[in-house]
Amino acid sequence: MNSKKTTFPGKNSPEVKFIVELGRSFHKCGFSSYALEERLMEVASNFDISLQVYSSPTGIFLSFEDQDAFTTTILRVEPGILDLEKIALTNEISNRVLDKKTTAKEGLDLLKRVMSKGNRFPFWIVILSYAAISVMVSTIIGGGLKELFVSCFLGLIVGIIFIISNKFNLTRLLEFICAASVGALSNILYTLIGPYDQSIAIISGLIVLFPGLTLISGIDEIANRNPLSGTTRLSSALFILMFIVFGVALGSNFFFPQANSYIFNIKNLSLPIYLQYIATFLAPLTFIAILNARFKDAPVMLLSSLLAQIGLYFGNRIVSDQIGIFFAALILGLFSNSWARLSKGSQYIPLISGLILLVPGVVGYQSLSSFLSKDISEGIMIAFNMSLRAIALVTGLLCSNFMVSAYKNREQK
Description:
Strand content: 5-15%
Largest sheet: 3 strands, antiparallel
Number of helices: 16
Helix content: 55-70%
Number of strands: 3
Radius of gyration: 23 Å
Order of helices and strands: HHEEEHHHHHHHHHHHHHH
Structural class: mainly alpha
């Protein structure tokens, strides 16, 4: 993508340095490639700078036009981790610079200060958040008291492994280590407390690791005519799912539970149906620490998730379970874009909160698990269902972007 202006103030100018740092910051925060490119183009046009941008999941190319020559900057950036606080703050800084309330030099200093910050929550709150979201998901998908207990324990273990892997730079093995640990522990607990639905407990314990958002982001990139970035993200999501499935299979083979040889054969109790609705409503709050969100954004996170679930409920009754998700995504996208337009905040804050319970990452896990157990026909059916849900979701988001833009056109102000 390229901007329209033709002035280049020099590679050491505050404006150029700000554009480069803004691109790096957006990428590390987890922005999609096309959103990053559009935002940098807007900033460059505001500075009367001619800029061409190409973004991929692992790098950014920025080419500044200087009369008949180009000055190109290449940034090698690791794939970003979603951080809602940094997304909100970088968006606020870019808005202040665009509105000329802050100079480029001041904006550059603010960006560096924001990106140097770590997670605002202590590690023990992050670990408890992993356990909490596992409990919520177990309740939502119909688990009983045993499944709830096991899910909480497995989520706690995943949270501890996450903290340790970040400290010792083991993030590339995170999904495999967590999946293998969860697979082994689920069998051990099966022998300890008696029969329970292991699939519910395993899915709930690993829910944070499923690459549903990466999968949707990849399809969204392809739909926005960025096939290289899209296929890269899709490949990444597929390999993460394969690591998880292989890890669970490997861990489950370390310890086989024996029938009728339980240490404590605890009776399982079903949970009241109203708890599923409460868990669905409160689930986004458990992601506040995991996604490093600000407390003041909690109300809009709750509201966006509620609207998405309402859209899903009525959509499933109007059409089908696979197509109904289109209406949920459409309502979520319209709300997120409208909120961003009115508040000048980032649409990613409500959007991600609403997508968390919609993305089909769990369905992908079930599909690969079926292939692993040699149930090919079931695996193909589940994979097709996942693809249909993902495309319906992305189509809903694209339609919402067409109907309401998240950003006002400053040239028309």
